[in-house]
Each structure stands twice: as C-alpha cells, then as structure tokens.
Design a protein that fits this description.
5-stranded antiparallel β-sheet; 1 helix
Length: 90
C-alpha cells in the first residue's frame, strides 16, 4: 500500500490486492481520499491496474497491463472488490 499527499486534505492511495492473477501478476487500485468536514471521507478518481508481469522471476520487468475501468463490468468485477479489500483491511 502506498500513500501520497495530493494536497492538505486529499491523499492518493495505491493498494495492491492480496490475490494475484496468473503467475505473479497482480491487480492494484488507486484513488484519492478526501477528508470531509463531518469527519467523513469521499473516494474519487478511482482506477485499477492489471499488471501482467511475472514477479516470481528475477530481473523481469513489467509487461504492461490494463488500466481501467473501461466498462461497468470491469468496475463491478475488478475495481470495487479492490477498493472493498482496502477498506476492510483498515
């Protein structure tokens, strides 16, 4: 998990899912968390990345991947489970 400060009230989160796909490939999701005045928060600018590299082999670099969501199905089946897993882990 990686946190970066976007500005005073916003943080960019990149979360790597525990579940891998293929051999060593992974799904990550990134989003901005905005603090709201009522001690709540809002998530926006949500994306996912499917990386097709095999990180079990030494010296192998990323083969690229898919950046999304590009459809409602990808949003439902890939992005939202990644965000849910992050929220449950906190």
């Amino acid at each position: 998990m990686v946190f970066r400060t976007a500005n005073e009230n916003d943080f960019v989160v990149t979360y790597y899912r525990k579940e891998t796909i293929g051999v060593g490939s992974f799904i990550s999701c990134s989003f901005v968390v905005k603090q709201l005045p009522n001690n709540g928060f809002e998530l926006y600018d949500m994306i996912f990345i499917v990386d097709y590299a095999d990180y079990t082999k030494p010296k192998l670099r990323s083969k690229g991947g898919v950046l999304g969501p590009t459809s409602e199905e990808e949003r439902t089946n890939i992005l939202l489970p990644c965000v849910d897993e992050f929220l449950e882990s906190q």
